[in-house]
Design brief:
Pnp Oxidase, Chain A; single chain; elongated; 9 strands; nine-stranded antiparallel beta sheet; binds flavin mononucleotide; alpha+beta
């Protein structure tokens, strides 16, 4: 059989396929140029229309089936999540021809100690976007009205706008593109275990 027509082992086994997706998500949290580092987050707005945008995956916890992203407390997405916790995240790993689609419930982390711990480990550059004086999404007349606060003596300016969202995975779908036929699997969360089944691609 020609090489391009053979499936890799992990694609043909539900558990191995999930393990591979987990490893890819874990790696994406550490590697700056990983395709899966940037996930498309979908929320539902107040008019029940879907809204999408890119977020960076900051942590993936396979034991608790959760992942984390950071955002501005004043952002539209946070308001949307506050009124509807059901979210979806989508990524495509072009090297492995793997699409990952996650459904989950968002939890906005309110515990100051956790927030401070994460903030303290962030690069100063990553903190800068939280120091914009007006709320993200607000209309301005000129770009000169977009003003950033100084870092502050303790580097904590902007912290009040910093939010962390945990996504508790309710289901995860993988789609491996392949010349011999795409392979699609759906894993559903039953008591914090993902149970997989094959579905038609
Ligand atoms: C590559 C990339 C990564 C981004 N990462 C984040 C992120 O981690 N968190 C975030 O709030 N916005 C991030 N953004 C900006 C969002 O996509 C979006 O434009 C912004 O947060 C406003 O979204 P909202 O109005 O729906 O809240 C990123 C944008 C790009 C292009």
């Amino acid at each position: 059989m020609p090489k391009e027509n053979t499936y890799d082992d992990h694609i043909l086994d539900l558990n191995k396929g999930l393990d591979f997706a987990f490893r890819r998500l874990e790696k994406a949290t550490k590697s700056r140029d990983d395709d899966l580092r940037f996930l498309v987050l979908a929320t539902i707005d107040s008019r029940f229309n879907p809204q999408t945008r890119t977020v960076v995956i900051r942590e993936f916890d396979k034991d608790n089936l959760s992942l984390r992203f950071h955002t501005d407390s004043r952002s539209t997405k946070l308001f949307e999540i506050s009124s509807n916790k059901n979210i979806s995240l989508l990524g495509y790993d072009s090297k492995n021809k793997l699409q990952i689609r996650i459904s989950g419930e968002a939890e906005i982390i309110k515990i100051d100690k956790i927030l401070k711990g994460i903030w303290g480990k962030m690069y100063p550059m990553s903190r800068e976007c939280y120091r914009v004086t007006e709320a993200p999404g607000k209309e301005v007349n000129t770009i000169d009205e977009v003003i950033f606060e100084e870092e502050g003596m303790d580097g904590n300016n902007g912290f009040k706008n910093f939010s962390v969202v945990n996504c508790h995975i309710t289901s995860l779908e993988t789609l491996y593109l392949h010349s011999a036929g795409h392979i699609r699997c759906l894993y559903e969360n039953n008591n914090n275990e993902l149970t997989g089944k094959w579905i038609v691609p």
